[in-house]
Amino acid sequence: MAPWRGGALPRGSYLQQRVAGTPGSIVFAADGHRAVPLGVSQALAGDPRFGAGGFRYCGSMLVGPDEPLFGNACRLATAVTEAFGLVGVNGIDFVARSGVPYTVEVNPRYCASMELVERARGISIFQLHARACAGHLPEVALTGPGPADVVGKAILYARHDLVPEGTARWLEDDDVRDVPPPGERIERGHPICTLFARGGTVAACGAALAARARTLYLSLEAQRARIA
């Protein structure tokens, strides 16, 4: 994805209206007629704290149900479910401006922010999916954490070509996932791992993720210097 500045488009390309705002998504369970929200998240995209640039997705943070965006996103999920007859667990990516979600795409599948819902609520998304496909939706909306406990994740991208060692120890930390095997070469711009963190607010959660990322980057830089 890249800004279009006029001129011919490469074959297979398409244009989307650019909306200034905050990227996010809603994940929900549906039975073809009704939609029950599971969580609304704010997306991290192109954030240099995690080695990302441009429009590259690099994580998500759940927002509380008291946010104005939450109600509007829920209404959007209901409208899309009714229009397309969605079943199971689904997601809608959007750009939010002044609390209004502008749809980017509909994902009738497991989505990246669903593991945050699992962590925050201690539930099985697969179980919810199977039940929703059979026509059984949760009794109440699983709205995710309140503002006192924001759960988030960040995908770290390599800033240099690297060959991390000792990654087996990373597996001991429940807040580190998608761990590469020791000695695997990771090229610049490719993902290293996924980090999780919590905070009292979205800003605090983002800061906690950034702090974890900074610590890991420093460790990898020290390792890279020893090898050099």
Give a written overview of the molecule.
By secondary structure, the chain is of the alpha+beta class. It has one domain (22-227): D-amino Acid Aminotransferase, Chain A, domain 1, CATH 3.30.470. It has helices spanning 68-84, 114-121, 125-133, 202-227, and strands at 22-31, 35-45, 57-63, 87-97, 100-107, 150-157, 176-177, 191-199. It has an eight-stranded antiparallel beta sheet, sandwiched between helices. The longest helix has 26 residues, at 202-227. The model is unreliable at 143-147 (pLDDT under 50).
* Helix share bin: 25-40%
Name of the CATH first level:
Alpha Beta
What is the CATH superfamily?
ATP-grasp fold, B domain
Strand content: 25-35%
Total count of helical runs of at least 4 residues? 4
Domain module tally: 1
Q: What is the mean pLDDT?
A: 90
Strand order of the largest sheet: 5-4-1-2-3-6-8-7
Secondary structure: number of strands = 8
| CATH architecture group name | 2-Layer Sandwich
What is the CATH topology assignment? D-amino Acid Aminotransferase, Chain A, domain 1
Distance between the termini: 35 Å
Label the overall shape. globular
Ranges with pLDDT <50 over ≥5 residues? 143-147
- Biggest sheet, in brief? 8 strands, antiparallel
Spell the H/E element sequence: EEEHEEHHEEEH
Over all CA atoms, what is the radius of gyration? 19 Å
- Return the structural class: alpha+beta
